[in-house]
Each structure stands twice: as C-alpha cells, then as structure tokens.
Amino acid sequence: MSFRSLWVLLGIPLVAAGLAAEVPIITGIGLIITVAIALSRLWSRRLFNRLNLKIPITNSRIYQDEETHILIELENRKFLPLPWLRIVIQLSNELEVTDENIRTIAGDLHQTVVLRGSIGWYEKKSWKIPITSKHRGNFRIDSPVIHTSDLFGLFPRKQQFNVAANLIVYPKIIELTDLGFPADRPLGESKGRNQLFEDPLRIAGLRDYEPGDSLRRIDWKATARKGEIQSKVYEPSAAQHLYVFMNIDTLSHSWEGFLPEHLERTISVAASISVWATTVKFAVGLLANGSLLGSDRPLRLPPSRSKVQILRILESLAAIQPLTMGTLAGSIRREVSRL
To answer: Does the entry feature the keyword Transcription, yes or no (predicted)?
Structure first.
C-alpha cells in the first residue's frame, strides 16, 4: 500500500479513535485529514472542467532542415488551478527537437516529449517545442495527454485531448546548376509554341474523329451537318509547359525493395525542377509511378499555371510512398491520350 493510500484511509479512523479516547487533538487531526481528502477528491474530479488545449504550428509547411515550432496552448477557464501538470505528446522519430532543455524519451517509431508546469485560475499558458526534420513527410501530431492532480497529489488524473495538427516537410530543393544543368537555359533551347499542349479556347479547325478523342473535343453541330463525327483542332498553347516524369524505381524489380538515398535524391530533383519552372512562369505538372498513402493510383498532376500548383506538387512529393504502381513508361502511355 502506498503512502498516498495510507493518508486516504487515515482520516476517519483517527476521528473515531480521538472521540473514543476523548483526545481532542487526535480528533482534530483526523478531521483535518478527512476534510483535506474530501476537498482533494472534489478538486481532482473538476481538474479538466473548462480546460482547453490547442497545438498549432507556427509554420506547418517547411523544407528539410528548416525549423518550426509546435505550440502547446493551454487555457484554464475556471477558478480552480492546476498546481502541477505534465503534458505528454508523441512525435515521429524523423522529427528532431532542437531544444536540449526539453525532455524527450526515445522509442522504436516515436519519441515522447514531456513538458512540465502549472496553470492558475483563469490563466493561459503556452509551451514552445522547436523542431526540424531531415526527412520529407506528412507528420500528424495529435492526442496529447495531460497528467495532473490536486494540491496534495492524493488523486492524480490524466486525460487525452482529441486535438491534432499536421506538419508537411517538403523535399530538399537544390539549385539546378548544382545538379549539372546549364545556368542560362537549364532545359535547353525553347522552340516557340508548345505543340504538345493545346489551348481549348482557340479552335483552329475540324478533323475526323480519332479513337481516344475526348467528348469535349467533339463538335456536335459539325457532326450533325456532315453526318460523321468531327473533332475540334485547337491551336498550340502559347504558354510554356513542363511535365515532370518521375520514376521511383531504384532497383531492377520492385520486389527487391528500394534504395532510400536514391529515392530521396530523385524526389529532390523533381521538386527542384518544379520549383524552378514555377519561378519562370511555366505551367508545371507531375507524373510518377508511385502513389500517396491510401491511394491505389499513380501520382498524376496535369500541368497548370495555378498559384497553388507548386504547393500541390511539393505536398505530393512530401507524401509519396516508395511502393511502385507499375512502370513509368506505362504511366506515360496512359497519359498521352489525355494530352
């Protein structure tokens, strides 16, 4: 039996013994202990009432080796303080806590971060956890647990909070000159308008239907007049397009596994080219024979000049898995009919 349990069981017997022996001091001590235990239990039951916790991230999208902060924001919206508390939160081992004063406990897949403190009545407090990562990925930070107790530590309690935050770590971006591309024209000479991509708003003429033409290409009025299916011919797009094809195969056969360093280098090169193309106003797309977690289809992002396109590409490259979804050549063949 613990020392704490002895205190809980001591109050009423002392009162009874003091009354029986007619010793007021023993009765008084017993009453004090009994009242303290009753108040402590009542305190303990209300510790988590009107207690709010949030875990925002100062910058939820970073590149490898950049630093950001996880904020633990706690608000006590009641008159009852928490005299001591311990906040426990799990992080992936691929994230590194850069503050040596913050206690971390290493595990197989996760590390446990332990924060200590207290919070008074109607008070807000925050803790800051500086983190960085040498690994790309989509990291979920959720379900922190708070351990606390009453003033005397007689009735400890804990509660898990269903709050979460996501941290996306983009692949490392490398200057194209460092990858061996020429500085003035990294992708070689440009040859005028892009013949591969077409502008659907500019119709150059009509032609007979060909297998693989989409329904949007068919001119139904011309088809009705001629009696044969007619497809629209679009003028070449005036915008420069860049479609990045990425092969995630690092070995001859997928069942052999993969080489992590080679895969990360491939992903980093694809990200670097995409970022460069965005800065020079290209319409950028990405096609890969890998997929995102939970998806059964190869990664496909058709070229676009949208302002959020580069974010889509970087987020996809951050989360792409090493499992191949067929060959890249097969993905390209399927894509040709859509262009």
So the answer is: no
Please report, for the chain, the start and end positions of each structural domain, with discontinuous segments joined by +. 3-45, 51-170, 177-190+240-336, 198-238
- Give the pLDDT band (50/70/90) at residue 171: very high
| Mean pLDDT (whole number) for 235-248 | 79
pTM for the full predicted model? 0.75
Cβ atoms of 202 and 235 closer than 8 Å = yes
The C-alpha atoms of residue 29 and residue 14 are separated, in whole angstroms, by 7
Q: Assign 1 a pLDDT band (cuts: 50, 70, 90).
A: very low
DSSP state letters, 236-259 = EESS-EEEEEE----SSSGGG---
Q: Could you tell me which residues come within 8 angstroms of residue 230 by beta carbon, excluding any fewer than 6 positions away? A: 206, 207, 208, 209, 218, 219, 222, 223
Secondary structure letter of residue 120 according to DSSP: -
Fold observed for domain 51-170: Immunoglobulin-like (2.60.40)
**To the nearest 5 percent, what fractions of the chain are helix, strand and coil?**
30, 35, 35
pLDDT band at 243 (very low <50, low <70, confident <90, very high): very high
pLDDT at 173: 94
Instruction: Give SS3 for 59.
Output: coil
Determine how many CB atoms are found less than 10 A away from the CB of residue 205: 11
